[in-house]
Amino acid sequence: MKSLADTLHNPFISFYETAFLKRIQREKIEFIGISVSGCFQLISAVTLAKLIKEECPSVKHVSLGGNYITRLADDCMKEWHPFFEYIDSIMMYDGEEPLARLLEALDSGDDNLDCVPNLCHAKGGKIYKNHRIEQTFINDTVPDFDGFALSKYFMPELILPVYSSRQCFNHCAFCTIPGATGGCYRKMPISRVFEIMCRLNEKYGTRVFSFVDETFEGKRMEQLADEINASGKTFFWHGETRFSPTLSTDVFNKIYQSGCRQIQFGLESYNQRVLDLMKKNTRVDWIDRNIHDCLNAGIPVHLFFMIGFPTETKEEALNTLAYTENVLNYSKQVCGVPYSTRGFTNFGLVMGSDVWNHPDKYGVSVMPKSQYEDLRLEVDYVSGTGLTLNEAKSLSDEHHIDFYMQEVINGSDTIDLPQRLHISEVTWILDSIHAVRYKGHLTKVKRRLTSLNPADRIWLDSKTSVVLVEPFAYFYNSEYHHVYAVSQLVYLKLARLLEADCSISLILDQGDLELTRAIEELLHYGLLNTNIDADYVMHDNGFQLVKSSFVKEVGRSKEGLRVLLSCATHRMCAVNDYSFALLSLFEKPITKNEVRDILKKEGG
């Protein structure tokens, strides 16, 4: 019996469905396993399952698995559910042993699946959940990424996921991992972890690894560093760990030497009272020491935290926000590490967490879900003290840059789809590996083609990808994360010139002003290359400045400041009304001296 397991990350599978169905039909596959880790994947998974049932008669059984669908089946599927019109079962919790038992049962022709552990299945219009087992072993098979279009990701180089352990040894009050994955905390020998990394490096050429452990213990990170350092291999990696008194300056230095270029910490809060209520088993003094030593070793940090955990006050939430902002400033300005980041949102009461199971202990009342929220795992609640749900959301939005990104009007000359193909912290990890430097105090000169040597040639930068989305062609540079759009008509003209290994003189001979201006912009943002090095100049008083056509006002902050977005670089800033009015001075090229004279004349 053959099996096909895949995870669909795009809620619109029309680009993939034909290839999947043809492969299933061609190979007469009999079992399909689809991993579902979120609600958008669920839409794709059920749609694909429906198509399989209609188009692939060889398939005898379709099963779903994964963290999200486990929690959905555990808490929401009490009676018959329409999903079972298109699927045959759900493998709950960790799937290695249940999958083997399910395949054995199907191979034997036995229609009775009651003996398969951790299986949720339908029979006679009813849903049955079989006995649960806790896995005690860890799967140490080398991951197989054959069949994935690894060369088509918008990344400067390939990153592959690996894990060294399963489950987590801590049970935080807000977390659903212990209940949704099952089994005890178990770990793979570090020597085997290193061997897997070497095998993936040999097969796929990757040297960058993302550890997806729920918690990568500090001691095990040190052991991995010893293996890598002793081998002399050039690997880069990142992972998520907990603050610990055992992490020292020497450990962080050793980890950096082994290629670690980011450590993600579950900060959650910078208030001891809240940390204790969360059952984090973390001390604030550990946080301070670990972050200080990590950054001084040259390793960027990514800090996860939340706003509005039950009973948390506004003052406590603002204390965490201020602390994380100070960490990012310290990282960049003192340690010379500009790649540290933070990620946060408001607290969400999720089914299966300790807060959900014991709301009275946390002073919250759970609000009932409506009939239209049967697939929603996060529920509304009322907190007796501290920030309300709406206050927490408002405070999170006020400090979250993505809140303003959503305000960008449709039809802009840029698209942020490529940025969404990978999580933001991975962007910064790659920047750290490639040592991308940000020339904040310099301005890149926009070169006119007429000022270049007519014999010079242009070509597409090796880190630039092009995505065609009617009516635009979007250029994306995975190193600088710049995005620029031209009409598809201009792109077709440019593509023909690039294929002909064109020179500057050939471009100018076209007499096409729109094409010429587009090429100048693409050169300016590093999406095209020429054999002339880019010129950067200091912001001296005689240098002419002009307002960029790619800057848009996207909204106002809670303080009433105007939020400006560069559509080419995705950088943002907030300015007051007076500063915004001053931008009108730069509608035409003007020097700093001229600006100063105008302000003096107007009494500014």
What does this molecule look like?
- This protein is α/β, with parallel strands linked by helices and 604 residues long.
- Helix content is 34%, strand content 21%.
- The chain contains 20 helices and 30 strands.
- It has a 6-stranded mixed sheet, sandwiched between helices. The chain has a 6-stranded parallel sheet with strand order 7-10-11-12-13-14, with helices on both faces.
- Strand 21 (464-469) and strand 22 form a beta hairpin.
- Helix 7 (218-231) crosses helix 8.
- The chain is globular and about 80 Å long.
- It starts with a strand and ends with a helix.
- Mean pLDDT is 82; it is low at 1-15 and 402-423.
Task: Jot down its keywords.
20 helices; 6-stranded parallel beta sheet; single chain; 6-stranded mixed beta sheet; 604 residues; alpha/beta
Count of helix runs: 20
Biggest sheet descriptor: 6 strands, mixed
The strands making up the biggest β-sheet line up spatially as 1-2-3-4-5-6
Percentage of residues assigned to helices: 25-40%
Query: Oligomerization state of this entry?
Result: single chain
Average pLDDT value? 82
Question: Beta fraction of the residues?
Answer: 15-25%
Radius of gyration: 27 Å
Q: What structural category do the secondary elements indicate?
A: alpha/beta
Poorly predicted runs are 1-15, 402-423
Distance between the termini: 80 Å
Shape: globular
- Give the strand tally: 30
Topology diagram in text:
Blueprint: E1 3-6, H1 17-27, E2 31-35, H2 39-55, E3 61-65, H3 67-75, E4 89-91, H4 96-107, E5 119-123, E6 126-129, E7 159-162, E8 165-166, H5 177-181, E9 186-187, H6 190-204, E10 208-211, H7 218-231, E11 236-241, H8 249-257, E12 260-268, H9 272-277, H10 284-296, E13 301-307, H11 314-334, E14 341-346, E15 349-350, H12 354-357, E16 364-366, E17 378-379, E18 381-383, H13 389-398, H14 401-405, H15 424-434, E19 442-444, E20 458-460, E21 464-469, E22 472-477, E23 482-487, H16 488-499, H17 504-509, H18 513-524, E24 528-530, E25 536-538, E26 544-545, E27 551-556, E28 562-566, E29 572-575, H19 577-582, E30 590-591, H20 592-601
Parallel strand pairs: 1-2, 2-3, 3-4, 7-10, 10-11, 11-12, 12-13, 13-14
Antiparallel strand pairs: 4-5, 5-6, 8-9, 15-17, 16-18, 19-25, 20-24, 21-22, 22-23, 26-30, 27-28, 28-29
